[in-house]
Design the sequence.
């Protein structure tokens, strides 16, 4: 997974609240397990409506409670495959936000008035190290837990995090080999 430190660009605006994961990635596209190729199905039903236009920009700005509904991983995969590096909203479903960070997609929760102002600004700079979103004359701070920030700054997925513990894992395995199998008395 790619590290996220700082990036900037235009924003794509999806001014809707309570967007659930079935709207982001409909169920008929959940049969595949690879993480790529889902961008073309993003917001599939909405994309068929006249006037739908969601530019492929690095930042998606949307309404509150984004990613609610089921916990499907395909929704963040589709957003990332479409080209988004960050999603900014007043709030997210917890599992959706966690699934985003596990693949290197940054969910940023800002106050509703800041999100509205960002929608109007049209472009932004996101700095994960400083935990800031800059747009126009505004600098908005966001919260992120230290472990998630570390993962994203260093581009570490679950496997890479585990491999960072290789020395401790090897020591445990060596100790287990010396002490033999665990037995229980009946």
Sequence:
């Amino acid at each position: 997974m790619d590290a996220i430190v700082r990036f900037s660009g235009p924003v794509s605006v999806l001014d809707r609240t309570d967007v659930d994961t079935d709207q982001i990635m409909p169920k008929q596209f959940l049969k595949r397990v690879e993480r790529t190729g889902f961008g073309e199905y993003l917001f599939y039903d909405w994309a068929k409506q006249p006037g739908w236009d969601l530019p492929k920009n690095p930042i998606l700005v949307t309404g509150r409670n984004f990613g609610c509904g089921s916990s499907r991983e395909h929704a963040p995969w589709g957003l990332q495959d479409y080209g988004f590096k960050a999603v900014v909203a007043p709030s997210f479903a917890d599992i959706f936000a966690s699934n985003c960070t596990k693949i290197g997609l940054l969910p940023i929760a800002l106050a509703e008035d800041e999100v509205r102002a960002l929608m109007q600004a049209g472009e932004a700079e996101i700095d994960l190290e400083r935990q800031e979103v800059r747009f126009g004359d505004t600098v908005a701070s966001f919260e992120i837990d230290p472990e998630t920030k570390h993962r994203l700054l260093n581009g570490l997925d679950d496997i890479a995090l585990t491999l960072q513990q290789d020395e401790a894992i090897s020591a445990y395995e060596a100790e287990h080999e010396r002490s033999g199998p665990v037995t229980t008395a009946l």
